[in-house]
Amino acid sequence: MSFFKKEMDAEMDQKLTENFYDPEHKKKESKKIRKGFVISLIVLLCLTVLNWGIISDWGKVDIERVKAVGSNGAEWSALVYRPKTATDENPAPTVIMFHGSAGNARNHESWAVEFARRGFVVIVPDLNGSGDALYTDSEKESHLEPNFWYQYMLNLPFVDKDNILATGHSAGTTQAWDLGAKYNAKGILTAAGVSPFSGHYKAPEGTYDPGRKPGEKPRDIIYTEWNEDWFKWVGNCVVCMGEAEMTNYSGVGDWNVFLQRGVNILNKYPGYENATEIEPDKLYGSFENNTGFIFCKEDYRIHEAAFVSKITIGNLLKYGQQIIGDKVPNFIDSSDQVWMYKDYTGMLCCIAFAYFLFALAFLLMDSVPAFAAVRRPIAKNIGERGVVLPIIMLLGLVIPYIVIKTDLFGFIGTQGRNMVKYGFRLRYASLNFGVVLGNSLFALLGLIAFLVSRKKEKYTLADLGLAPADYDAKAPFKEKAAAVWSMLGPSILLTLIVVAVGWSYMQLMLEVFGTDFYCWFFGNKDIHIAKLPAMLPYLIGYVLCQLVINVDMNVIRRLPTTGNETKDIIVSMLINMFIAVFIVTLLVAMKWHLQSSNLWAIDGSGFWKTSLDVQRIFGLPLGMAIASTGSTYIYKKTGNVWFCALLIGFIACIMGTLYGQYQFDFTTVPVLK
Fold this sequence. Notes:
By secondary structure, the protein is of the alpha/beta class. Helix content is 48%, strand content 9%. It has an 8-stranded mixed β-sheet with strand order 1-2-4-3-5-6-7-8, with helices on both faces. A two-stranded antiparallel sheet has the order 9-10.
C-alpha cells in the first residue's frame, strides 16, 4: 500500500468538512488551540530569557537604547552595553563600534557581547538612517552623527577616557579612523574596511553613490567636519582583512596595491620609515608605547564573516585587550567566545515568535465570534496528480536557482537599480525580497497554466481558498464580492491585531531586556514609525507574493492524503519546507564556502556563479522555512489563502527587511542632490 492514497482524496475532503461543523470535534480543537497557545507562549518566554541571558552575560551587562536629536532635527540612536562593574567611581575601558553601510547597531552584537563580558563598556550607534536612527535632508547631519556619539561617550562618567578603542566594520572603518585619530583613541581596530589603506578623506568627483536616483549626479562624501589629518595619526592600530573580500569591496581591486597602501601607513611609524612590505600577523612597534601596528590577514574570508567569525572577533579581542593591558576589568582569553550561542537562540526565538503569532491567531479565531469567518472548511483537494505533481515539485526546487542565477533576468540585483522606481532597494538583506519576488512570478505563471489546463473544471475562488465555502451558491456579482469580503475583511483585521500584539511584545522585551531577536543578518526588531512608509512597498510586495505562492504551494501542489489528517499536515509542512529552502540553502552555503576558500570563488564558475551576492542572504533559508511551514499549517487549519498571505507576508516583511537596512537610507528620506 502506498504512503499516499490519492483515491481517498474525496473521502478525506468529506471527513474534513464534517469535522469542521461537528460540535464535538470543535471542542477538541478548541482545547488543542488553547494548549498550543500556552505552550507557544511559554517556549517564547523561555527562549527570550535565554537570548537575553547570553547577550547580557546573565544580567552582568545592562543594555540600553539611547536616543538623541541632531542639530537639524534628525533622530539618532545607539545601543549602550554597560557592565555592572563600570561605575562612576570605577570607570571602565570602552569600545565604540561603527557598523557598515548595510547594518545597524544590532548587527555587531557578537563584538559587543564579547567585549562587554570582559568588562568593557560598548557603544554602538545606528548610522546612516539605519536601525532606530532617522535622516533629515541634511547631508551634513550624517557626518555630525558619529562625532556626536563619540563626544557622548566621552561625557559618560563611567567611561575611562584614557582607554578607548575605536572600532569599525566595512564603511564603519572610516568613522573609526576619523574619530579615533581626532580624539586620540588608545587604539583603532578595523575589520573588512579600507580607510586605513586608502588615505582619502573626500570621495573624488564621480564616485559611485548607491543612494542616487538613475541619471542623478553622485554626491560627494565630505568628511571635513572631522579631522582631515587623520591619516597622519600614529598610534595603536589593528587592521583585519581577507584577500577575497578586499578584491570585492575595497575599491582597490588588487591585493598588492592594497598591501602597498598599508606599507605607506606603516612607514609613518617610528623605526619603520623604510619598510617595503607588511608581514601579516606581525606586531610592529609596541602597544605599551602606543606605536603598535599589526595587519591580520584572514585569508579568503568574505565580508559578512567579520561579525560571524571566531578568527576576526578573536583578533579584535586579543589585540584589544593587549592594547588596554592591565586596565582590562575581566581578562578572558580571546579563544573563549560565546557570541555564537546568541545567534542560535536568536534563530530559535525567530521561529518561536512566528509560531506564537500563529497560535495567537488561532486562539482569536476560536474565541472571538467576529473572527470565526476567517476559517472555512478546507477546499476540496484539486492538486495536480500523476507525473505532473513531481514535475512541478522539481520546478519548485529549480526556480529559486534560476532566479538567483540570472538575477531574475536582470530585474533584481545587489543594487536593485531596475526596481528603484518602485520604491525598492534590493541590497543585502532585502535581496530576500528579490528572491521571493522571483519565485512568486514563476508561481504566477504556473497558476495561469494550471487554470488553463483545467478550464473544463471551471474552478472558482472557493476552490483556490480565496472565498467562503458557500461562494458558488451566490448569484449576483455583489453577493459574490460580499462573500469574498466576509472572509478577507476579518482576515485583514485579525492580521493587524496579531502583528500589533507581536510589536507590543517586542517593545516590552526591549524595555525589560534591551534585546531583540537577531541571528545571521536576520531577525525581528521594532521599526521606527517614521519608516513605515518606506516599508509599504515591501509589505504590499510580500503579501502579493505570498498570495500567489500559497495558491501554488497549498492548492496546485497539494499532496494526496495519507489517510490521516495529522500526517497530511506534517508531511506537507516538511515537503514544502524542503522545496522552499533546499536550493537556496545549498547556494548560500556553497557560495559562502567557495568565496571564503580561494580567489576562484570570488566570482565562482559554472553552476555556482550567480548574479546575486547569495552569500549575503544567509538568513533567507530560515525565513523561507518559517514561511513555508507556517503557510502550510495555517492553510490546512483555516482553508483561507488570504489569511496565509496576509499574516506570512507581514511577518516576512518584518523579518526580511529590518536587518541590512541599507535600502532604508534612501527610501525613508529624499535623495540628496
